[in-house]
Amino acid sequence: MKGFLLKAHAKKASAKARERSAVSRAQLDGQSRQTTETKTSAFPTGKINQTERDRSVLTDSSFDPREPRKEETVSDDKPPEKMSFFSMPQPADADGTSAWLVGNKTAMAQVIDSPGYPSRTPKPPRCDMTVFRQTIDQQKWGIFATGLIKSGELLFAERPLLVAPRSVPKHFRALPCPQYDDGRVMPLVLETYERMLKLSLDRLPADRQKTFMELPNARTELAGYPILGTFFTNNFGIENLKDNTTYDGYAGVCEMGSRFRHSCRPNIMQRFNLASFSFQFYAARDVEANEELFYAFCGVEGSAASRKARLAPYGIACKCSSCLNATPESDLLRTNFQSEIERLTEQTTECWKTGNKIRPEVLGNMLKLEQDMIKEGLDGISEFTAFLMVIGLTLKSMGQSSVAETYLTRCKGVVGIIDGSASA
Ligand SMILES: [Zn+2]
């Protein structure tokens, strides 16, 4: 138990550092969009992950696709291999086909060598756990729970329509365009990437190609590149699929999963399973019947104003209750909850190590933060699950076994999803 806790804690701390850099980059990106409308200062990616990788190289003003920089070249200083187009899985099955634009053989081997590949997509405990329908005010469409869903339950799994590098692939660094100035290099990169994605999509059955092109495209800065715009509006990062030809690993667009709407009060999480080549969407907390299911497209930390800036590329003006009713106090909670969890966790683990008694006020502060996070809609994020476990273990060490058990039971369903052991 404590092993997991420490692992989760370390994972969280590093994710936090990455999130911080993602926030500052997003802010910079937002600012540059306002001031220089025609220049794309950073290549877009897609919906944020809990574990964003640093992609500062792409926001670096010295970025020049013509000159591969030494530290960014692939291993053995060899240029990247040609990109390849695949249909997944092979052989095909009845769970749908994915088009995959692959950077090199490493990524392909990661999938093919994963235990159980090729397997069918996992099925949820009950069929039709969700429904895609209009919101009550009939203004939007969203995905709703059809009945009570327990924390950690699989909502559905699906093969993505398209999987491709999440950001500009390193292959494009060697584009032969020495006569172009910087203002003409980016369009060439975009045109090339658009063409690559088109060739990938061409491998899909016609109905799946049509489904992809009918998904929303909010990327106005990518006008003229319809596939790229749709890809970057709808993709989810695939954390466990990476190779050295990509800066941000891979991302996939789903027929149904990409229709989850954004909220800063998310109640689902997703994981990508290599063996079945599918995204799996889970309830991140208990969900009531008819409750809408939401994914956070951006990091949920920080003030309402900073979240607004991060959501601007999606054309989303978030109307969740946390955004509508934001106060200086709620902004402060969202800015500080990660460091506060870290501080309280350190205090208790220190006591476990030294054998000292945990002071009642430490537990009091934990329970207060737990309640504040629930009220603020932060109970559907992985940090909250790890925090529940810390509280449970703290109570246990203080001899309050039965209350401790309720905490440990509450986070049980999600723990396996966070650390990957529940992945089918
Ligand atoms: Zn919001």
From TrEMBL:
Coiled coil: none annotated. Residues 1-84 are annotated as: Disordered. It comes from the Eukaryota. Residues 50-81 have a biased composition (Basic and acidic residues). Residues 127-298 form the SET domain. InterPro entries: SET_dom, SET_dom_sf, SET_domain_protein. This is SET domain-containing protein. It comes from Crepidotus variabilis.
